[in-house]
Amino acid sequence: MATYAIGDIQGCFSALQKLIDHIRFDPVKDRLWFVGDLVNRGPDSLKVLRYVKSLGPAARTVLGNHDLHLLAVAAGCAPARTKDTFQDVLSASDRDDLLDWLRHRPLLFRNHGFLLVHAGLLPQWTSTLAAELAQEVEHVLQSDAYPKFLRFHHRNRCAQWDAGLTGMTRLSVIANALTRLRVCTLTGEMEFSYTGPPEQTPSGFLPWFEVPHRKSTDVTIVCGHWAAAGLRMLDTVLVVDSGCIWGRHLTAVRLEDRQIVQVSCGERGYRGA
């Protein structure tokens, strides 16, 4: 049995199929962990969703920012953007079933010393606290109140965590950290506009995984979201978004021994972040 963590797919189904074939994935005994952003910017969001959903317990996926955006657009809580490419999902005969399945995916998953999340954890969060905070958002997303949250989250730009936050602001900041975090200050203020490489992080900010005394080093965090960071294999962090949507690679890392498997995504002309 092997567990493979797979980077941001963003609708690139053909690359995913090549990668699955390359690792000789057996759904009976192997497991796939997806870091989120299954959809958008690539050409085949519908095929990706149908495939991952069909895997049942053989697959684990967490929600990414593009997944939340799809849910918000589908619910009428946010307008579509010019570069969105998930109309195939919105027009599908099984859209309601797929969107309901997606909405019930977690924001964070922990198992056997690993923590799966799309973007990262704020440095003052322990892994246990992060899991508890994720559940706060999941509870609302999986309830009838989810449109209210998605509408607020689309409009909210609060980037500073504070344990005293309440209501929708609290939930939105938690979701922002788990799905959009790249860089932050020592006190947990996030900067969402920066998408460049970690080595050029703006003054006053640090890559979240380089903040001194980060409190979540008791687990190995598996994440994606940061294409410009590329594949990063650190002691307690595995960043596995290797820029498939930018025509680079789709990556799988076997968690048992950190073996890396990559397939080329070619010059596709899709652009995402």
Descriptive report:
The chain is built from eight helices and 13 strands. The strands form three sheets. A five-stranded mixed β-sheet has the order 3-2-1-12-13, with helices on one face. Helix 3 (65-74) crosses helix 7. It is an alpha/beta fold and 273 residues long. The longest helix has 15 residues, at 127-141.
Q: From N to C, what is the helix and strand string?
A: EHEHEHHHEEHHHEEEEEEEE
Average pLDDT = 95
- The amount of beta strand, in percent, is 15-25%
For the largest sheet, list the strands in their spatial order: 3-2-1-12-13
The shape, in one word, is globular
Radius of gyration: 17 Å
Write out key terms for the chains shown.
single chain; 273 residues; alpha/beta; five-stranded mixed sheet; 8 helices; disordered C terminus
Compile the SSE list and pairings.
Blueprint: E1 3-6, H1 13-23, E2 31-34, H2 45-54, E3 59-61, H3 65-74, H4 87-90, H5 95-103, E4 108-111, E5 114-117, H6 127-141, H7 146-155, H8 167-180, E6 183-184, E7 190-191, E8 206-207, E9 220-223, E10 232-233, E11 237-239, E12 249-254, E13 259-264
Parallel strand pairs: 1-2, 2-3, 5-9, 9-11
Antiparallel strand pairs: 1-12, 4-5, 6-7, 6-8, 10-11, 12-13
